[in-house]
Amino acid sequence: MPKVLFFFFFSLFISSCSENSKQQILQGEIYGTTWQIKYFPKDEGNSDFIQSIVINELNRIDNLFSHYKDDSITSLLNNNQIAYKETSEEWKNLDQIGWTVHKDSNGSFNHKIKGNYDFNSFAKGYAVDKVSDVLKANNISNFMIEIGGELRFEGHNNSQSWTFAIEDPSLIKTIHKKFYSLSNLSIASSGNYRNPGHILNPLTSKPSQTNILSVTVIDKNSTTLADAWATALYASPKNEWLNLAKQNNLNAYFIYEEDEEIKNISTSSWYELVE
Asked: Tell me: the pLDDT tens digits for 16-41?
């Protein structure tokens, strides 16, 4: 499935409730997009070390799942240079997650197109989760990670809630609505309004026909799943997306067009996680 979340870098605005001199910010470029980490270290002098291990982990993920790098596991498999059994267990695990979402979404999510694997629709979310593991392994418990728009919040921002805002898809104003996270959360979104036609329905291989303008999914534990499900919900058949979200107990927020009006609706569990 072609990557659908490039717009998301613009669509979620991360807000700091207050400033603190101890907050560290790391940022760079990877996977054809940008990444940023805000965190509060136990040891203020280890920022160079943290940046180094983060970059190493981002590159490690790239070597597994990139379909642009000729020597990644994904490219080697797609080019018949290795067999499936020769891939790593980590690679197989993410592949299985993809097929599980494929099944549970009635085929609206598919990471294998025309015989080739393409993890672009949820690999950034997976990278967020793996970087989160790296930070926690180094005694960092209060942080925000953003990679190409996929987000993970842990702990607090200077003893206050992390906040985010969804972009107004009509582009009439900048922000549609601002939210405060009530716990550790992963957030991903999908939409088509900045690049019409680039999100394909995997069942037809044609641009998705939907009245959704954007969908945002929250998962308490997994940015990988939030990322995959945001894609699946957007690509699902018109008028089926809300039922699909409810059937899978997803925390989802939809902005959609109906009767020439822009409306929004969320699953009942959405406001259990944010306010």
From this structure: 444 445 899 999 999 999 999 999 99
Q: What is the architecture of the domain spanning 8-272?
A: Roll (3.10)
Closest CA to 38 of 131, 124, 125: 131
What are the residue boundaries of the structural domains of the chain, listed by start?
A: 8-272
- What are 8's two structure tokens? 């998301």
More confident residue, 172 or 1: 172
pTM across the whole model = 0.90
CA distances from 223 to 131, 133, 149, 185, 262 (A): 11, 12, 11, 8, 27
What distance in Å separates the CA atoms of residue 275 and residue 261, rounded to the nearest whole number? 24
Q: Would you give the DSSP letter of residue 237? A: P
Nearest CA-CA partner of 41 in 150, 127, 136: 136
Collect all residues with Cβ–Cβ distance below 8 Å to 70 and sequence separation of at least 6.
Answer: 79
- What is the rounded CA–CA span in Å between residue 249 and residue 159? 30
Residues ≥6 apart with Cβ < 8 Å to 110: 1, 98, 102, 202
Q: What is the largest CA-CA distance in the chain?
A: 56
Looking at the chain, list the stretches that DSSP marks H as alpha helix, in order from N- to C-terminal side: 8-11, 47-65, 73-78, 89-104, 123-137, 223-235, 241-247
Angstrom distance (rounded) from CA 46 to CA 48:
6
pLDDT at 229: 98
Read out DSSP for 186-209? Answer: EEEEEE-SSSTT-SEETTTTEE--
